[in-house]
């Protein structure tokens, strides 16, 4: 599908008007750093940045907010998040537009990201009445043991460009009901989206008479994130990004005995068994591999297909890839938008060259689109390659739409291939054999944090805890009991006996 890309003036005007409708004071953005749109490579907006010195002031303000917010009953805190969810619903279309303009997501995926924000607000509102502790039997008569959970402190959030709003909401909705304020350092590639989210939360806080500075956004470069990581007043740092980034963040937070929640790289695979429904597998694989132009941490990067079905599966995948509409993400019918920038495109080209050198063959895709029309925009055809083995480049995460297909002969071999990469985020198996499915999700199966059957590797629901193992960082966000990471646990012993027996039968009379 060949389209004419919109002009820079058209996109800039749309971005300014959309941000204004979300409550952003667009006249106060300043004339600082220029942000561009990956849709055409043109100037989108100019936004003033803060420097690292702003972090201490923000954390100090957040700490004061925490002292008040921690005493507010959790269901009352939930009312703030409920109002945020209502405002997100009201401005769903506007936020989705900003996401498309700033990071190039197709409209459907951008709307889905905002819906994810709304969903996690709903979840957090319910959670505000379910921050359960437990009662524990004491070995001493007349004593009661119990666990209680209390607000933790200031939460620092560092988010990446590919989910410029949803990751903030995962952390913020849960943190707020847990009693914690948030200081957010968003991707510098998506400042308008961040400012729009912050404006909506500020409005909700004002309407609910919540303390000031429960949420602050700091637009700036890497030094701002580094200052947030190092600040002793930040109790928890939730950082989303590359494994390389996580290697720097984790030790620095640990050095000051803070907590970190790391959501890092993924190199996700699907095992396709002989009994698999190949039409179902093809649909699941193509969305997971080509959606968001391959720029999700849960993007499928490997297919491990049984030798009996690999040829037929590759034929289906190649046919689907040839029909994928690549183009303007805001245009109806587009399924694959642009890569975020030229560095991403260069990394994709390098990976494709390396794959061929390492014995791979390109089956479909890999070409660039719209280069003459927009030389600073980087549209690419999702690439499909067959590999003889899991070579070095296959073991690496390339943040682009590259899918490697590998053969296997036994399920044991397939599971070993799935697990033989440094990352451990998401995985899936396509099979009609219940035993194969059960093995894959068992302790002897996939070693990932997300293990799916008969669906792809991306598109997680907010009800489950999101995160992975190994070089993915081990963090958990969003649903299930991920809320515990935003609180501190206290074990309480209450003596109502009038005597003082000691535990373990110790005697110490004075």
Note the beta-strand portion: 15-25%
Instruction: Measure the end-to-end span.
Output: 88 Å
SS class: alpha/beta
Annotation, overall tally of beta strands? 23
Helix content: 25-40%
What's the average pLDDT?
97
Kindly provide the radius of gyration, computed on alpha-carbon positions and rounded to a whole number of angstroms.
24 Å
**Poorly predicted runs of 5 or more residues:** none
Please tally the helical runs, counting DSSP H or I stretches of 4 or more residues.
14
Summarize the main sheet: 7 strands, mixed
Q: How would you sum up the global shape? A: globular
Strand order across the largest sheet = 12-15-16-11-10-18-19
Describe the 3D structure.
The relative contact order is 0.14. The protein has helices at 8-21, 53-69, 74-90, 92-103, 107-127, 166-178, 191-207, 222-230, 243-255, 278-290, 310-322, 342-357, 411-419, 434-441; strands at residues 33-36, 43-47, 134-136, 143-151, 154-158, 182-185, 215-217, 234-240, 259-263, 268-272, 300-306, 361-364, 368-369, 379-380, 383-386, 402-408, 423-424, 426-430, 450-453, 465-466, 469-470, 477-478, 487-495. Helix content is 38%, strand content 20%. The model has no long low-confidence stretch (mean pLDDT 97). The strands form 7 sheets. A 7-stranded mixed β-sheet has the order 12-15-16-11-10-18-19, sandwiched between helices. The radius of gyration is 24 Å and the shape is globular. It is built from 14 helices and 23 strands.
